[in-house]
User: What shape does this take?
Amino acid sequence: MDLGKAGWLSSLLEESVAAHVRAPAPVVPSGLSESSSGRARARSYVRRMLRASGLLYGTPADGSVSAEGTSSESAGTGSPEEVLFRAVMRTFARMALDIAILASSPEGPRREQLLLLFAVLTGQLDEARSVEEKVRQGQEVPKRLWGRVEDALERRALSLSGDPAYGLVLHNGALYADAHMFGRQALDYFSRGGLNHEMARRRIDFAARQKALLVEVLTGLACVDRQPTFSARRAILRQVEDLGLPDELEG
Assistant: This one.
């Protein structure tokens, strides 16, 4: 699976769904019983998953090894940045699929449902709405929609693949904001049985504000001893631009 090659996202999500079918069922979080509401179980799971998977710290636990059920091509080839990005994608997908089970979500086209969630992650609510409509009608999602989400994820892979020399250590914090937003969105989608567009927009905006605050704090720390050099300022500005923050926050 090569980033930039059409169809990589569909293949990765298909492998993730297949691996999840063979994997053990997610365990009900401690402190809760099987009789607890699906939403409560899924909410507790999200909190635990962010820590157990390593996403709380910006690097998934399987970032350097092949995940069960994935081909060697999709799991372990390419640059270290690509390997890390694919590991993040697989971890996000596994988290959403576990949430679907814990929330007692009816069986459905999980690959397409994951596509919808990744569209929301990249801020593509119009595309998410179109995917949801196709899923509701039992129709195939057009390749152009897959392509739009793929392109957006590839841009995100570049912005979160690492921290350039002289830049800010943004990767861990930015990825956690994304993971938290993705998990909460998956929880809402599977427990509600549909996409609440207003709440999705709020989650996207909240994650953007978290990243903007992170940039502000890290920039302040970088300037404690002395003003950044020209090279450092250029790297920082490039990182901020790559985050794709709204204009009112990027300024």
Residues 64-75 have pLDDT under 50 and may be disordered. The CA atoms of residues 148 and 197 lie 19 Å apart. Residues 197-222 form the longest helix (26 residues).
